[in-house]
């Protein structure tokens, strides 16, 4: 018998229904995400901000401000290296040389991790392989 022949659907009444539609029952409210989880990081983890200077990216100042608002230490901030003919892999190798397992890399925009979706995916996979956490503060449509 196909699943459609025996599947049922029904409305389940909430035990804690409230008259005010704007107020969630306690059992449902407990399931809502806590905004503090996003700022969480392992104890002792180092926050490392990554700022990229490219035409398709927010300005350096906007990226730096987003990182600072998240809590990335900005003292000693160095402007991104200019384009010097390095491949993306060479730049990543330099980045990986500054990171250790447990670090948290924070970027203002997902496109800081690559020039296209494939590079972004490979970068995140390599960071995860090295036990480095990635936090992306904003994303745009590709």
Which helices and strands, and how do they pair?
Blueprint: H1 3-6, H2 26-29, E1 47-50, H3 60-70, H4 88-97, E2 104-107, H5 117-129, E3 133-136
Parallel strand pairs: 1-2, 2-3
Unreliable residue stretches = 15-20
Helix content: 25-40%
At CATH level 2, the architecture of one domain is 3-Layer(aba) Sandwich
Q: Major β-sheet, in short?
A: 3 strands, parallel
Strand order of the largest sheet: 1-2-3
Rounded mean pLDDT score: 76
Shape field:
globular
**CATH top level assignment of one domain:** Alpha Beta
Task: Report the β-strand fraction as a percent range.
Answer: 5-15%
What is the chain-wise order of helices and strands?
A: HHEHHEHE
The structure class reads alpha/beta
How many helical stretches? 5
How far apart the termini lie comes to 43 Å
Number of DSSP-assigned strands: 3
The CATH superfamily label of one domain reads Resolvase, N-terminal catalytic domain
- What CATH calls the topology of one domain is Rossmann fold
Q: Radius of gyration from the CA trace?
A: 22 Å
């Amino acid at each position: 018998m196909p699943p459609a022949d025996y599947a049922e659907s029904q409305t389940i009444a909430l035990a804690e229904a409230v008259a005010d539609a704007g107020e969630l029952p306690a059992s449902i409210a407990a399931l809502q995400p806590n905004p503090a989880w996003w700022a969480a990081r392992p104890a002792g983890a180092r926050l490392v901000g990554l700022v990229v200077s490219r035409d398709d990216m927010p300005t350096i100042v906007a990226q730096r401000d987003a990182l600072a608002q998240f809590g990335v230490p900005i003292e000693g901030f160095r402007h991104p290296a200019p384009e010097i003919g390095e491949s993306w892999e060479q730049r990543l190798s330099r980045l990986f040389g500054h990171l250790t397992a447990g670090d948290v890399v924070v970027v203002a925009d997902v496109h800081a991790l690559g020039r296209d979706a494939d590079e972004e995916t490979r970068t995140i996979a390599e960071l995860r392989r090295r036990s480095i956490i990635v936090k992306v503060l904003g994303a745009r449509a590709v």
